[in-house]
Specification:
two-stranded antiparallel ribbon; disordered N terminus; 188 residues; mainly alpha; single chain; Arc Repressor Mutant, subunit A; 2 domains
């Protein structure tokens, strides 16, 4: 069966019926997978990680080729377009990245003439961000949502289950860098 992926790509996806051991190589008998079934399930999960990772990489390459900015920079432009005059700290929070990372990305966009930084008239300490006409043109040519589809793709119960499963996976990692959680995916 083919399905459309995260960013419009088509993938061959094998679906198994959980009720039929003949159709599902990972059919659970009682509460235990057979050793062979667990190995096959592990391979299927690995393949799904590859599809997700590869699709994300393809999307970010497409963004750079089409728009001339990185995926992270595009996401910043989209967020500033949604809420003009936002500050860097607010923007970092909305993007779920470290404030210094966000500040560096904003500086690069400002240096390219895509973002304007203006001091607030009431509070001179506060700097608001707005888009230039060039940034508006980039947004007009951008492929797909910059933040990805995950926020809207899954119901809350599935997100909670996925979150717990990923916590379990991360707990098994021998080499682990938790600081990566605050980096944009496009910059990894």
């Amino acid at each position: 069966m083919y399905c459309r992926g995260l960013f419009g790509n088509e993938y061959n996806v094998t679906r198994y019926s959980a009720d039929s051991p003949a159709e599902n190589p990972t059919h659970i008998r009682g509460s235990q997978l057979s050793r062979r079934g667990k190995g096959q399930l592990s391979i299927q999960v690995l393949k799904k990680f590859r599809i997700i990772f590869g699709s994300v990489r393809q999307h970010f390459r497409e963004v750079e080729q089409t728009c001339g900015v990185t995926g992270s920079q595009l996401w910043i432009l989209q967020e500033v377009a949604k809420i003009p005059d936002t500050g860097v700290s607010e923007l970092a929070e909305r993007l779920s990245v470290h404030q210094s990372t966000c500040s560096q990305l904003v500086e690069k966009l400002a240096a390219r003439g895509l973002i304007k930084k203006e001091r607030n008239k009431q509070d001179q300490r506060r700097v608001g961000l707005s888009l230039t006409a060039a940034a508006q043109r980039i947004l007009g040519s951008a492929p797909g949502p910059a933040e990805g589809i995950l926020p809207e793709a899954l119901p809350e119960s599935a997100l909670l289950a996925l979150d717990q499963a990923l916590i379990d996976v991360i707990g098994q990692l021998r080499l682990r860098d938790d600081k990566l959680a605050d980096k944009p995916l496009a910059d990894l």
